[in-house]
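Appendix B: a complete holo record

For completeness, this appendix reproduces one full record from the ligand-bound portion of the collection. The bound molecule is zinc ion. The inputs are the chain sequence and the ligand SMILES; the output is the full three-dimensional arrangement of the complex, encoded as structure tokens. No fields have been trimmed.
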Amino acid sequence: MATPSGGSSGKLRPVRLTARQARALERIHAELQEIGLCLPGSVVLRTGRCGKTACSCRADPPRLHGPFRSWTRKVANKTVTRLLSEEQLADYQVLFDNHRRLKALVRELEELSLSAVESDPRWRRH
Ligand SMILES: [Zn+2]
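The structure of the chain with zinc ion bound, as generated:
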């Protein structure tokens, strides 16, 4: 079992978690353990025109191509886009949802940690 201050006990001895904070930490740990594969990025549906001049996408009224399921994510500060089939999106949706949940849990853990170190009495020495 984890100690109230986290897995590597002792290092944060002056930091005391309240009972509520300790419960929150346990819940975050439990939820993190349940998360499976996580896909970063976002998926948007796009329609568009192709390069052919005599195509229905340039008719009046136009019949645009698509919808395309466009998955974008950042790789080394560059946006990478890939198209997903309908079947891929259906299969991957839970992985995108997992990633969103993971990011929310990381934020919760950061907030909890920030409020936990507030109880450190050494702040008062400065
Ligand atoms: Zn076209």
